[in-house]
Specification:
Blueprint: E1 6-9, E2 19-24, H1 28-32, E3 36-38, E4 50-57, E5 63-72, E6 83-88, H2 92-104, E7 108-109, H3 114-121, H4 127-138, H5 142-152, H6 155-179, H7 186-219, E8 221-226, H8 233-241, E9 259-265, E10 268-274, H9 284-299, E11 302-308, H10 315-324, E12 329-334, H11 345-351, E13 357-359, H12 368-380, H13 395-416, H14 421-439, H15 445-452
Parallel strand pairs: 1-7, 8-10, 8-11, 11-12, 12-13
Antiparallel strand pairs: 1-2, 2-6, 3-4, 4-5, 5-6, 9-10
Length: about 450
């Protein structure tokens, strides 16, 4: 337990019906007493996990706001410390005034993520569970939320603990052989440890392979809509969003800057960007837009190239197709609702081998379901997880797994090369420690600071 008490605004700043100031630490109740005038004056004696009505007052007794105060007694709280939460009106001014009063009574302003850090250090959450809190907050789709909640419930942690437990069993077996060489069991033990190490390596590699899928659900796919001016890029964005987000006119060059939105495609967050049309132009503003478009192509995970089916391929179209290179892309032949189609699918396919070519009408919203199916197939590559699949979604977790796999591979190579088993044990222990970085059983203060610095203040 910490000796100091921290406080922060736990709700987003801005106007809202309710705002919360959270206080956690040994002095949480004593700090709240002088500023909370409750209808039930003996609210501290009424017991834990209750809600009390009253007013927040300053030192002169002037009412600052009407409020509800919740009192939660350690250890049955988020941080396993005494916690007081003041629910007042959600404006910037009342929240700031309440926080100032709390700090004036002896609390310290919390650092980013410090409530979750205390929950971890006080044993309520392991590190993987604590990290899932920020993933829940940032989830863009139901699938992303489900993955984060699964991690908060400890499903990934239990899998990692199981792997660590098996490694400890290997280490115990290995050290027994080393300590009692007279038994002559080294050769048979080495063969058994080799088999078990390979099984563990296979389990870890399975988690690593699933990390790309987890990352997709957690972070989404950066997708760029490109093409020449007036081919229907903005119409496609509006059709996929089911709303008029981008301006659509018959005038080429309407979109001069990038418009970014999040679209939920079968549980996958698609960070989709409508860009300026690619063409040579003398307009200085449009030039900037075109330059940004070219830059976004380089950073995109997926490209949606829109071509005008009512025209044949132009030199500009061919240039754009060549600029894509080997980027993951889908070619969309738009405006199939027009009377005469002049574009040739075979010619497009020859210029973009390997890229799916689809016929659509952004205006009539034709072909969008097929487009969504194609996006899911390309992004997941047949790796759609089953309900009982444990997915790794964090790059940090993936890197820790890769380190563990590397150490296990070294141990296997050492046994195969007939190295002394006490040297093999070094690699096995390193694999155990690498897995511990995920749950926090072998974390450093520097690692913790880096992780919780990404959290918002108040969480």
């Amino acid at each position: 337990m910490y000796e100091d008490t921290i406080a922060a605004i736990a709700t987003p700043l801005g106007e809202g019906g309710i705002g919360i100031v959270r206080v956690s630490g040994p002095e949480a109740v004593e700090i709240a007493k002088p500023i909370f005038r409750a209808k039930n004056k003996n609210w501290t004696a009424a017991g834990s996990h209750r809600l009390f009505y009253g007013h927040i007052v300053d030192r002169a007794g002037v009412v600052v706001d009407e409020a509800l105060l919740s009192y939660m007694q350690a250890p049955h709280t988020y941080t396993r410390e005494d916690v007081v939460e003041i629910n007042c009106h959600g404006g910037i001014v009342p929240l700031r005034r309440v926080l100032e009063l709390v700090l004036g009574c002896g609390a310290r302003l919390a650092e980013p993520g410090e409530f979750s850090k205390r929950a971890f250090l006080n044993g309520r959450l392991d590190l993987a569970q604590a990290e899932s809190v920020i993933d829940i907050i940032r989830a863009r789709t139901d699938a992303g939320l489900k993955l984060a909640v699964s991690q908060l419930r400890g499903e990934l942690s239990r899998h990692i603990f199981s792997l660590q437990h098996k490694l400890l069993g290997l280490l115990a077996q290995l050290e027994a052989v080393v300590d009692f060489p007279e038994e002559g069991l080294e050769e048979s033990a080495a063969a058994e440890i080799m088999v078990m190490s390979k099984d563990l390596l296979s389990e870890i590699e399975k988690l690593i392979k699933g990390a790309e899928t987890g990352k997709i659900y957690r972070e989404g796919i950066s997708t760029v809509i490109i093409g020449r001016p007036n081919v229907g890029k903005s119409s496609l964005l509006n059709a996929m969003l089911r709303e008029d987000r981008a301006i659509v006119t018959e005038i080429p060059g309407t979109t001069r800057d990038m418009i970014e939105e999040i679209i939920n495609i079968r549980g996958i967050p698609l960070k989709i960007i409508d860009t300026a049309g690619l063409r040579e132009t003398e307009d200085e503003v449009e030039k900037i837009g075109v330059a940004r478009t070219r830059d976004s192509i380089g950073r995109a995970d997926l490209i949606l190239l829109v071509l005008d089916a009512a025209r044949g391929l132009t030199g500009g179209d061919r240039s754009i197709l060549e600029s894509i290179g080997e980027k993951k892309s889908i070619i969309l032949l738009n405006k199939v609702d027009v009377a005469e189609i002049k574009i040739e699918q075979g010619e497009v396919e020859s210029l973009a081998p390997g890229s799916p070519v689809l016929w659509i009408s952004a205006k009539q919203e034709t072909g969008l379901s097929e487009l969504e199916d194609t996006i899911v197939d390309m992004v997941l590559g047949g790796r759609a997880p089953s309900s009982d699949t444990v997915l790794v979604a964090s790059l940090r977790h993936k890197q820790a797994l890769e380190k563990a796999a590397s150490h296990l591979a070294e141990a296997i190579n050492g046994i195969h090369g007939k190295l002394p088993l006490d040297m093999v044990s070094i690699d096995l222990r390193s694999a155990w420690e690498s897995l511990g970085e995920i749950t926090g059983s072998s974390s450093t203060e520097e690692l913790l600071d880096r992780i919780f610095a990404d959290f918002c203040i108040g969480k």
